[in-house]
Amino acid sequence: MRLLFLLSGEHPTLPASEAMAVLEALGGGREVLRDEQVLVAESGAPPDRVAERLGMCHLVGEHLFTCRCAPEEILERVEGLDLEFEGSFAVRVRRISHHCREVSTTGLAAAIGRRLLAPRRRVELEAPERVFIGIASRSFHFGVLRARVDRRGYRDRSPHLRPYFRPGSLKPALARAVVNLTRVRAGERFADPFCGSGGILIEAGLVGAEVYGFDIDAGAVRGAELNLGFYGLRGRLEVADAREVGSRYPEHFHAVACDPPYGISASRRGVALQKLYQEALESIYSMLRSGARACVLSPEALPLETLAGDAGFRVEEVHLERVHSSLVRKIAVMRK
After folding, report:
1. Fewer C-beta within 10 Å: the chain N or C terminus?
2. CB 332 within 8 A of CB 315
3. Cα separation of 57 and 9, whole Å?
4. pTM above 0.85, yes or no
5. CATH number, domain containing residue 243
6. pLDDT tops 70 at residue 264
7. 147, 47 in Cβ contact below 8 A?
């Protein structure tokens, strides 16, 4: 099936990369095209399973066509579709950013609906049996809605709503994307060697991974265990120095993701930042099985790619995210 993704738009590159990583975790996929907040990919993965895993996406549909954002061409393509369905339907058209300003989305949706009408079909706006989606970006993308992403669930898991809270925790949607970038599968062993309050572990547990968390702070480990339990999850949590975990669990994990402390030096127990990363990356490399991936976050100024290469990793992709005016962080995916 050719899948159509309406991406969240909260980051310019992460959502599409996350979607492709999820397809790989669920059996494979081939990217067809990218547009602003749009991805089209070939995959045999069930759309509902894909949507269940995604953090930075609104919906997943079955892609029907892409064309210029011109009403006459769009309606011609709709007219040419060979669709076999009966019952109620609705058409929703969404504009992305400033694109296709000359086109009325409500007017276009109504015109498409008229072209889709047939003796045994009727428009039903409140509770349609089938929803057609049009996305007006640089091009116009049209498809059938197959699954929505539960964005509310991520809001409900905001760090301040957990029993144990620590400032600086990743937002759940980003934590889920970080987990997904590792391509971890349900039932596989996943580790966070700087687990803190457990935000990344929660998202890994919710996709079905077997989670292991390590932190040098005993209070954080107790808090992470409390937070996991709050969501009905269990994990193996230990007080441990991330730089030493690799020697205790050699080639044990299918995936690793972490957001090491790079704020005040007290949280690093006085260890220089670059030294901490260098030794932690060597440990993470030892922890991973051959061919497995790690997703590691760092401040932009840190030479993360060089350190990862020195540890033996091949860096596959790097995304930059502005946290606030004085901090831009890297999100790097690396493979053993």
Report:
1. N
2. yes
3. 8
4. yes
5. 3.40.50.150
6. no
7. yes
